[in-house]
Amino acid sequence: MKDTYQQLVTLAASTVVATTILTGCSTTAGYKQADKTGAGIAEFRVEITKAKAAVDDTVTSLGQVAVTAHTNPRAAFEKYTKSLSNLESVSAKAKQRGEAMKAKGQAYFADWEKQLAQIKNPEIKSLATQQRAKLQTAFESIRTVAAPLKEQFDPWLSDLQDLRKYLSSDLTVSGVDAAKGLFAKTQNGGFEVQKSMDALVAELNTVAATLTPANVKAK
Fold first, then answer.
1. For position 214, what pLDDT does the model report?
2. Which CATH number does the domain housing residue 63 bear?
3. Does 217 fall in a domain?
4. DSSP assignment, residue 193?
5. Which of 2, 26, 80, 166 is deepest in the core (most CB within 10 A)?
6. CA distance 146 to 139
7. pLDDT tens-place string over residues 122-179
8. pTM for the complete prediction?
């Protein structure tokens, strides 16, 4: 009988915790902030996907410069220049989206912390604290994938920019041929960057599902 009573108490407490988290202690701020966080993750994911496509375009166009070295690499170089400019623009936007997502997440958990302070029942407060910690850990796991990608991407992009400067001054057959080893290295680096982007997208999908299970558009 005592065990049954304890189970009922635990069930009731869990229900109240869920209601508290979703409604923000009699307000709608809690779940709306969660929706905004989920929307921020979705927007960041879109930009990373665009960046991956831009990486592919840039790597492909760079390869064409090498292929056309003995004919006329000018058109291929112009395509490379255009693709690289797009990559620079897309990656900058992805960075902005990442910062916005981070800010929304911080606001979400800060708001949750305020709501926790208003919960009086110690058992409910304990459950809510555990759930908040669990979700915050999930959210912060994005950084464990995004940080290495940034460290990988920045020097790789710098190499692409240096190649653009080099080729703009020397599109001769010998000039392009001399740089083919660097072309191959940079192309391989691009493939590795894309793998890291895929890993980040997968992590974003997981965290988004954890934070905002309901498919609701943020307001």
1. 55
2. 1.20.120
3. no
4. H
5. 80
6. 12
7. 899 899 889 888 888 988 899 999 999 999 999 999 999 999 999 999 999 999 999 9
8. 0.79
Residues 63 and 52: beta-carbon distance below 8 Å: no
Lowest mean pLDDT among 28-42, 92-106, 107-121, 130-144: 28-42
CB 187 within 8 A of CB 64: no
Question: Exposure pattern of 100-110 as b/e (b: 16+ CB <10 Å)?
Answer: ebbebbeebbe
Query: How many angstroms separate the first and last alpha carbons of the chain?
Result: 47
What residues make up the domain containing 28?
2-211
Higher pLDDT, 212 or 85: 85
| DSSP secondary structure string for all residues of 35-58 | HHHHHHHHHHHHHHHHHHHHHHHH
Are 148 and 203 in contact by the 8 Å Cβ rule? The answer is no
CA angle 50-51-56, nearest 5°? 100
Largest CA distance in the chain: 88
Q: Tokens for 92, please give them.
A: 């900058």
Per-residue burial over 163-185, b if 16 or more Cβ lie within 10 Å, else e, is bbeebeeebeeeebeebeeebee
Count of positions (residues) in the chain: 219
Segment 182-190 shows an average pLDDT of: 95
Q: Give me the mean pLDDT over the 206-210 stretch.
A: 86
Q: Is residue 95 part of a domain?
A: yes
Domain count across the chain? 1
- The mean pLDDT value for 188-201 works out to 96
206 within some domain: yes
**Residue 117: in which H helix or E strand, if any?**
helix 74-117
Containing 73, the helix (H) or strand (E) segment is none
